[in-house]
Automatic annotation (TrEMBL):
CDD domains: ABC_Pro_Gly_Betaine. NCBIfam families: proV. It holds the Pfam family ABC_tran. Keywords: ATP-binding, Nucleotide-binding, Transport. GO terms for molecular function: ATP binding. InterPro entries: AAA+_ATPase, ABC_osmolyte_uptake_ATP-bind, ABC_transporter-like_ATP-bd, ABC_transporter-like_CS, Gly-betaine_transp_ATP-bd, P-loop_NTPase. Belongs to the ABC transporter superfamily. It comes from Nocardioides bigeumensis. Residues 35-276 form the ABC transporter domain. This is Glycine betaine/L-proline ABC transporter ATP-binding protein. PROSITE patterns: ABC_TRANSPORTER_1 (PS00211), ABC_TRANSPORTER_2 (PS50893).
Amino acid sequence: MTDTLVTDSPTTDSALKVDSLWKIFGPRSDQIIGTPDADLSRAELKAKTGNVVGVKDVSFDVAPGEVFVVMGLSGSGKSTLVRLLTRLIEPTSGTVTLNGEDITAASESKLREIRRHQVSMVFQHFGLLPHRQVIDNVAYGLEVRGVSKKDRREKASEIVELVGLKGYEKSYPDQLSGGMQQRVGLARALAGDPEMLLFDEPFSALDPLIRRDMQNEVIRLHRELGKTMVFITHDLAEALKLGDRILIMRDGAIVQIGSPDEVVARPADDYVKDFVSEVPKSHVLTLKWVMREPRPGESLEGPALPITTIVRQAARAAIASEHPIRVMDGDKMVGVIDEDDIMRVVVAEEES
Ligand SMILES: Nc1ncnc2c1ncn2[C@@H]1O[C@H](COP(=O)(O)OP(=O)(O)OP(=O)(O)O)[C@@H](O)[C@H]1O
């Protein structure tokens, strides 16, 4: 979502830190971790013990303001993982730390406080209150918190405008399209000014065009508000579009964590490779992955572009310039790229 290449674990303090998190469903689920059975595949464990691994030894860090996407097919454990983050489901083992607070050790009252003030969730089926107008749906969380009617209406109007629903304050949910209802859901999540937003496949039921609008809306809101976001999806294109980094899950475990360009350029295994095979490479890869050393005698007078530029965005400059583009990492030239190099990426993606 940003042009910044986030490769390693964030160096800033984490907004969210997940450490060796497990969720096993079934009988005696707490007696599996640490035994050889924990190494069995999900199917083998189920056959042997009747337990199902929902989330398997998952660790990751999310930096403040980062958009972190968790992607996987149905059954890969995404919903379980997102619910573990606020302990809507109890972990079997491991820890979740939110803004320095150990969620796994928090009391019930602390958890309620965190869910009300620090983290908001946006679901596919948002569960808007049908007999309440948009404005009161948006203000609902503030009402629960005991904010006065005047103050919560004021805040809710501000947020309604922010998500593009101005004029619909007095409508009821069933008078709105699916996309607009999801905007109400977004507004409701934002009204309490949480530090983090958790999205659980919020746009999966929307038509493709409306879905695209909503994705753009998330990008815009992130730019304006800078909130940390954890976004769950089964859609790779959505993951690549929204994520600063993407965690790919399979059978409850992590297959790869990386920035969109890393995942596409260096898939961790055949599973990810298969996933990304249809992705238009020139839309995702940055110059980092396609630049080369200058050839002897080659002109170094071409325009300079940052190494984080997406290939497609560099194409116009490459075509317009007689000289190769200089690829810059800060002030340092780290390589060059010309029209032919870019064409090679585009042709390769057409062939695949
Ligand atoms: N309460 C439960 N009891 C037993 N097994 C469960 C429970 N909840 C989830 N599972 C199992 O855990 C695994 C992960 O499920 P989860 O719903 O987290 O996956 P998902 O990636 O979110 O899939 P989907 O997109 O279909 O919801 C699945 O095999 C599922 O059957």
